[in-house]
Amino acid sequence: FAFLTKDRAEVLEYEAYCKANRAIQQLVLNSLGQIGVQSVFLASSGAAYRASDVTASEAMRIYGSLKLEDELNFSKWAEQSGQQLITARIFNVSGPYVNKISAYAMASFIADVLGGQPIVVKATRPVYRSYTSAEQLMSLAIAAMLSTEQQNLSFDTGGKKLEMRGNR
Fold first, then answer.
1. Does the pLDDT value for residue 110 go beyond 70?
2. Percent of the chain with pLDDT over 90
3. 137 pLDDT more than 50
4. Spatial CA neighbour of 131 closest among 103, 93, 165
5. Alpha-carbon span 30 to 73, nearest angstrom
6. Which DSSP state fits 132?
7. Spatial separation of the C-alpha atoms in residues 80 and 83, rounded to whole Å
8. CA angle 70-74-79, nearest 5°?
9. How many CA atoms lie within 13 Å of 60's alpha carbon, on the beta-carbon side?
10. What is the greatest pairwise CA distance in the chain?
């Protein structure tokens, strides 16, 4: 969960952004054997699907490319070590521990309500999101990690698609 997200790709220079994320990745990979890890939950991103998407912003493509690279390197670790890897491509998470409230629509809506303010929707076009609760995501990941079968599991988070702009 330490990976620098798309918002950081928008403000950092390309080389600095890539270097920082690769350093985080390498630190984790180098530590796994030293601490006797038997199973890893890798929080990837739906942005991995946008790595080659010419309609995506440059920041999204960079972030997505690095998330794909992350998935590949952790998969290599799992194969070489014979340990378990659970990878989730996470699209949107809701729940009490969401950070960066101003950057995420659902968190911003909740903050508006809790602050007694009207919900402000700034989208000028339809914006679709589907949400998974952090509790459900982690319950599935932990259950898979505790499984007695040796497995490598990859899945996308889901949820019902919602249009965030709403009717005007």
1. yes
2. 56
3. yes
4. 93
5. 12
6. E
7. 8
8. 150
9. 11
10. 56
